[in-house]
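Re-run with default settings, no changes from the original entry. Doing this only to confirm the output is reproducible before filing.
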Amino acid sequence: MLLVNILCLYLISMTVVAIFCGAHIKTLNGSNYIHALLLLCVAVCFYIFGYALELNSSSSSQISFWNHVEYIGIPFVSALWLTVALIYTGHFIHHKKILLAAIFVIPIITFVFRFTNNYHHLYFSSVSYIRECGKLFLVKKSGPWLYVQLIHSMLMVLIAMGLYIYDSLKRENKQKGNILLTVTSSVFAVAGLLLSQIKPFGPYLDYMALCLPVTCVLVVLAILQYDLLETSSIARGMSFESSSDAILLINRQNKVIDYNSSAKELFSQINIRLDNGYLSTLFCQVPDLLKGLEKTEKSVIKLYINNEERYYDVTTKNLGNLKSARGLIKTIRDVTQIYQLNEELKKLALTDELSTLNNRRAFIQIGKECILKANESGKTLHLIMFDLDRFKNVNDQYGHAAGDMVIHNFGKLLKNHFGTGCLIARLGGEEFAVLQADFTESDILESLNTFLKNTEKQTYTYLNNQYNVTVSIGVTKKLPGQNLESMMSKADKALYQSKNRGRNCITLL
């Protein structure tokens, strides 16, 4: 009886450990990996707790009842153990339905056969009771299906062990301790299956139930010491699932091992189905996105969501320190509004509000780029400077509102006449400039003469007052090696010559 009590205490203690692990796992996010681990803990709890109460029962009916409770978990322990291994090592990406069928069809049949065994005796050929040392024990003789389940369970455990070893060996920093714990835990599971058939200490002990807690303890050590669950746990602590940002959890092999619901929703809109797999496989159809995700530094990527251009900020955080990082958290945040606002602010900083043309800063910045392109291509480049004649008189006679209207309309005249292929700007006050490439001198002068006539004909009306405004023009052609400042200085001299000649005319220097 003392031995039975010790065994019961041992089994109940291991049940508490399994419940604790299940409770911890439940606090993590709801990925397939976490679901499989939680179900594994539940199956182990049913098995161990059921056997503990079977040992502690005093009647055949109680023993039979608790043995049936055990079989809520027994058929599924090894199957779930393999499922966890497949998901964790990234081998559960393709042919999921086929894999699930191959893994769980025999456990499901075993479950049904055990609960209907009295009608066919395929699982247990016979069930009897034996009294040893004043204690009643259940004695079961194996039926044909029990051997099928035994082979299936052993295969599940061995395949899982192989997957964990293979995954550990692939890592850059091979974790010998992780390999040792994984192998040892699997060896105990296999030993339990074999001892259940050999029965070295009598037919009434369930050796698998006795060995399984040791396997669980070793798995818990792997969870606490290595990267089996800790990565997801840390991520959960960083508001993994509740975040409105899309978050991907990447392991050291650049493999996606978890993601939150925001990530699933985001990538489904661009026809990417997230799963446990390598970045290069999941995002191969969107190279810009893949490039952004593979970077460790902060980057901005552009995606088209429902035919709308959107921008996302991609940041990376290490799980652990740089030397022993357990993985990476990739956060993808929608920054479309901020990006568009920044672009608008940049545009406003380079745009003259009154004329809606480029301002002086933009003209200098873009003009220098035009100079470089002209030097490389050898194309001609002309700078044209404009100054509205007697503009001060308009402000003095009709008011600044009338002057603003002239500036605005003159900007429209410039855009309509010179088109989008030129750099057009308001340099300040009533002074404007146009940088025009790949035109002959005669074409430039012909175009400007037409523009002079159109400007002179333009009539402005403000508060029942009508008036006209003319413009003086200075033109210069870029010489080899000449920079923008030199061209502007020369064109300005040409402009003042036009002013001195009586205004409303063109001077070419």
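Residues 246 and 265 are 8 Å apart (CA to CA). DSSP finds 19 helices and 15 strands in the chain.
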